[in-house]
Amino acid sequence: MCGFIGWFRSPGTPWREEERALQQQVLSMITHRGPDDGAESLHDGGWMGFRRLSILDLTTHARQPMSFGGGRQTLTFNGEIYNFRELRAGLGGAGLDSSGDTAVLGALLERGPLEDVLPRLRGMFAFAWWDQADRKLTLVRDHFGIKPLYYQVTADGGIVYGSELRAVARLGRASAVSRAALAQFFRWGAVQAPDTAYEGVRCLPPGHLLVWQDGRVETRPWFQPRWPGSTAWVQDQTEQRRLVRAGVLDSVKAHLVSDVPVGVFLSGGLDSTLVTACMREAGQRKIKAFSIGYEDDSGMPDESAAARRSAEFYDCEFVCECLTADSLEARLDDYFDQMDQPTGDALNTWVVSQVAAREVKVVLSGLGADEWWAGYNFHRLVSLAARSPLLAAAPLARALAGVVPLSVRATPSWKALYHVLGGAGRDVAAWHAHGRTIMPPAEVARLLQAEPPMPGGTGDAPDSWLHQLLLRETTTYLANTLLRDNDFTSMAHSLELRVPFVDAELFTLAGRIPPPAKLDTSGGKRVLRAAFRDLLPPWIYDDRKKKGFTLPLMKWMRLPRWQERIRETLGSQACRERGWTDGRMVAQTCEAYFKSPLESTAVWSLSQRVWQFYVLEEWARRNMGGRA
Predict the structure, then answer these.
(1) How far is CA 552 from CA 175, 232, 268, 328, 419, in A?
(2) What is the distance between the terminal CA atoms of the chain, rounded to a whole angstrom?
(3) Contact at 8 Å (CB) between 526 and 520?
(4) Helix or strand or coil: residue 313?
């Protein structure tokens, strides 16, 4: 939909000329570059800025900031409310200038109370609601964190906030890196909320609201992810499939609301194919499906052929770009210029978003199906540990891990044995931490001289280790890596990315489907696959391997042009002077990666580390200069 930024402080404090210049500069940083330039509103002690990507109500009536209550309240809203037409009908015929969802949201908030409004919203949203009479600012983020919201409390008791981290950091003059964030990045591949890469700038957690009034700040949850126990599970398999089919179809249909065409990301896997199938079932025609492929020597399978077959199966217009190592390397500077904070898992979505943005303003994605329907390979490994009577052999497993070569430890057989013996831990928290760890804590401590904290996300799901695991996935990996990366990579190209699998109503349904319907020894997403068997192409239904837009960086980074770029960046004087990481350890890891045979099972984990080193320094060069 858009991006927004704001700054509030004590009443009666005039804006200095340099502060107004800074506001305009920061507003221009919001990544959307469309026909609607920045708009703003000034209040006594407050400023709200907004840039719009027009999706609903393309007229000027939908421009923001939008006023309500005769000018008493002002709203800036990023996202989409998919059930806004139903909510509008419940307003009793209230006259609204705009036909879009922003006007409906503002009218609901004006009538309040907030606690009654929020549970009625179906969609993705982050918004700022200012009440001039009470001098109260309320910031709200959606259930699962699809849309981001960052804030910083200033030294004078004021607050700056916005939908983009770098804009908030610039407005609040944040200049120091968060050491805790660096540790999180190297262990998990992404910074974990509420931390951000900038010291002092916070990320409002999913399902939370913040109230700022008279210099005081209060944050509290308005939604917490909970699934019921076994007494609420649907046991009949036919009914399970019926409910899941109806629920997914309903969510996809809801996510199609738009005044502009809606496309779809289509890989060679189940999730995006399901979304495409549901779009057809919902009556969509002339669907544009977007994918990326690779040259023959990329070192990994090209899934674009399967995606093309699926597009033809559903009579879609297929738009695919075949990447080469050179064409991807040529885009890296643009990618890093738009990266708001270090992440190891976003370049693929940035590229396919660039492809889609040439044709449409909105796309649907299959992201989120794995987290609620148990689709990752490590979920199966955890199931071995959960059923194993040998967990007491954990000391033996860890002792073996200390002497077994990395090339062996990277094999599926070793990973299975390690879980069965208890090496990955004995409870859900340990299993999840092990499964999501990129760099072990001891290695991170050597690299940074700092311990990486455990991710704080949890969830309430009695009677099932699997449901507890999936809720941890929801509040950590889904929120802090996938959804956050998808937002910045898509909005960098002025593209709205919607995720129908990450839906509040579908979440409630997923909690009622028992664990065996999701995962068994044959794989995950069992009920999801079974519910749509008749709508899926056979090459998708019969293929149980995890698919997605995965880039062949493991091989391409070793090519001369890439290798020269990485060595030059990590060996630069600025990197050495920054001193965030142990330079000797970085150099040793890089040499091991560049010299290892590609056939070695160790080369994947080495490539991940080198990519993280490189990403961090490219981000630092653009955002921190020579500062530590």
Answers:
(1) 34, 44, 15, 10, 28
(2) 35
(3) yes
(4) helix
Whether the Cβ atoms of residue 584 and residue 604 lie closer than 8 Å to each other: no
Nearest to 364 by CA among 279, 480, 285, 293: 279
d(CA 292, CA 41): 41
3-class SS of residue 371: helix
At residue 535, what are phi and psi to the nearest 5 degrees? -100, -10
What pLDDT is stored for residue 144 in this prediction?
97
Burial state string for 498-514 with b = 16 or more CB within 10 A and e = fewer than 16: bbbbbbbebbebbbebb
Give residue-wise pLDDT tens across range 411-432. 777 687 777 777 777 888 988 9
The two three-digit tokens of residue 108, written as one number: 């609901």
Q: Which two tokens stand for residue 525?
A: 């997403």
CA–CA separation, 472 and 482 (whole Å): 14
Residue 274 CB contacts under 8 Å (≥ 6 apart), including other chains: 248, 366, 369, 528, 532, 535, 536
Q: What is the DSSP letter of 285?
A: -
Task: Report the SS3 class of residue 235.
Answer: coil
pLDDT (tens digit per residue) in 438-489:
998 889 999 997 665 655 566 688 899 999 999 999 999 999 999 999 999 9
Model confidence pTM above 0.85: yes
For residue 51, the model assigns a pLDDT of: 80
Amino acid sitting at position 494: S
- Assess contact for 266 and 276: CB atoms under 8 A: yes
User: Is 166 strand, coil or helix?
Assistant: helix
Residue 522 CA to chain centroid, in angstroms? 28
> What are the angstrom distances between the C-alpha of 449 and each of 194, 442, 445, 578, 613?
22, 10, 5, 14, 15
Distance CA 474, CA 144 (A): 7
- DSSP assignment of 509-542 equals HHHHS-HHHH-BTTBS-HHHHHHTGGGS-HHHHS
Q: Which of 456, 466, 463, 310 is nearest to 375 (CA)?
A: 466
Residue 337 CA to residue 348 CA, distance in Å, equals 16
- Count of beta carbons in the 10 Å neighbourhood of residue 17: 7
Contact 77, 48 (CB under 8 A): no
Question: From the centroid of its chain, how far is CA 276?
Answer: 21
- The phi, psi pair for 348, rounded to 5°, reads -60, -45
Identify the bridge partners of residue 292 per DSSP, sorted by sequence position.
321
Using only C-alpha atoms, the chain has a radius of gyration, in whole angstroms, of 24
